[in-house]
Design goal:
The protein is of the alpha+beta class. The protein is built from 13 helices and 18 strands.
């Protein structure tokens, strides 16, 4: 049997994490306050539903009853409580994510869905998910994976995985007005998601046959090619020089970054380098820094309304011996692209050498397998070696019809 005690409301303490899980400001409590006052007059105590508290008087379940009592102009001064003997609020949880998760889970345990507050309403469940997701990042440096998100939702509510995914995205965009619309039934989840992302019906853009010939441009501007390679590798070297306590972290044998980050970083560095050089050459260019999903480098001043962006994409791969074994990777859309320019970068991380070339690529260059596409450098050479411009290094097809890349050292000058 639970031992019920009466505790003055001025002795009860709000759990520090309750405010991040539940919205106190926008929580209507007037009806609850009137009910508590009526109960006190009728039964001699205000709350039929017990308030659960820790040994050090922090509330686990019953914050709304405490808040309503505090707002009663002195008509309510105590609540019936039960002390949860196996738990005491730990102040260290305010700075320790592991202990914080224990407190969050305990609050969740004592606030299962009930008639007082709908724990699975969209505003509540999304706020809970966000808190747990952020604390997972604090613990591990990673947010929930899609699978972990779906498992969490399946355990906590009955919404479909697609609806929950879309609503979390709406929450992350800060569109709480749309979340309220969905909760009230004024909008469907899909409609709210479309509005939150400002999605317009897709318009099929036309291919511009008179687009810029970037191979010809760079052939006529050899100094611009050299600057692209120089700028990208200046950025790469600076990234390698990140220093903590005398250790150059990125390449440190014990504490360094993952090898695949070299490809990712080099791709970004060449992307920025091309954009910078084009700007120096008088073009208005930009990267997708604030608009993920757009082409790597867009040349806005040459782009025409209704047509595909004037653009240059960047693809980077690690050298794997020769052309047939060195492959460039891309997303599933590569097999449906219209022809446009790509900067191909192949690097040898062990010797600081690179092969860099620019050519147009078409959908026929790519082979799709599942959700990924690839292009062997031998395929690239067969299709484009005669109509490309090589920025750095050299390449030729040998007597065995294998594409060989001469990887030139990138000098620090």
């Amino acid at each position: 049997m639970e031992s019920i005690i009466n505790v003055k409301i001025n002795k009860l303490k709000d759990h520090p994490f309750n405010d991040i899980l539940y919205d106190k400001i926008n929580d209507p409590r007037e009806k609850l306050m009137k009910s508590l006052i009526t109960n006190k007059k009728k039964y001699g105590y205000s709350n039929k539903e017990i308030v659960y508290i820790t040994k050090n008087l922090y509330i686990l379940s019953g914050h709304r009853r405490k808040w309503a009592s505090e707002e009663s102009d002195g008509k309510l001064d105590e609540l019936r409580c039960v002390i949860v003997n196996d738990h005491e609020f730990n102040p260290k949880s305010l700075t320790d994510p592991k202990l914080k998760q224990i407190e969050i889970d305990k609050l969740d345990e004592y606030n299962e869905p009930d008639i007082t507050r709908n724990q699975t309403s969209w505003p509540v469940i999304l706020r809970k998910y966000s808190v747990n997701n952020l604390n997972k990042f604090a613990l591990s440096g990673k947010y929930f994976t899609p699978k972990e998100r779906n498992n969490w939702a399946a355990e906590k509510c009955s919404y479909t995985t697609d609806s929950f995914k879309k609503m979390t995205q709406i929450y992350e965009l800060g569109r709480h007005d749309l979340i309220q619309d969905v909760e009230k039934g004024d909008r469907s989840v899909s409609k709210a998601w479309t509005i939150a992302n400002a999605l317009q019906p897709k318009v099929k853009l036309k291919y511009d046959p008179k687009r810029m010939n970037w191979v010809e441009f760079f052939i006529n501007n050899p100094k611009a090619m050299k600057r692209v390679v120089k700028y990208a590798n200046d950025m790469l070297r600076q990234s390698f020089d990140i220093n903590v306590n005398g250790k150059k972290i990125p390449l440190d044998i014990d504490h360094g970054h993952e090898q695949n980050m070299i490809s990712t970083n080099l791709s970004n560095f060449y992307m920025s380098a091309i954009s910078l050089v084009l700007e120096e050459e008088g073009f208005k260019s930009c990267t997708p820094r604030e608009e993920a999903g757009l082409p790597d480098v867009r040349i806005k001043c040459l782009s025409k309304p209704g047509f595909e962006w004037e653009r240059i994409e960047v693809k980077v791969a690690k050298f794997n011996g020769h052309g047939s074994s060195t492959k460039i990777s891309a997303g599933p859309g590569a097999t449906s692209i219209v022809p446009h320019s790509f900067l191909i970068v192949v690097y040898d991380p062990d010797t600081n050498r690179q092969f860099v070339a620019l050519s147009d690529l078409t959908k026929n260059d790519w082979t799709r397998k599942g959700t990924k596409c690839s292009m062997g450098m031998n395929i690239w050479a067969d299709n484009h070696l005669d109509n490309c411009v090589i920025f750095h290094g050299a390449g030729f097809i040998d007597s065995k019809k294998v594409f060989q890349m001469n990887m030139d050292e990138v000098k620090n000058d």
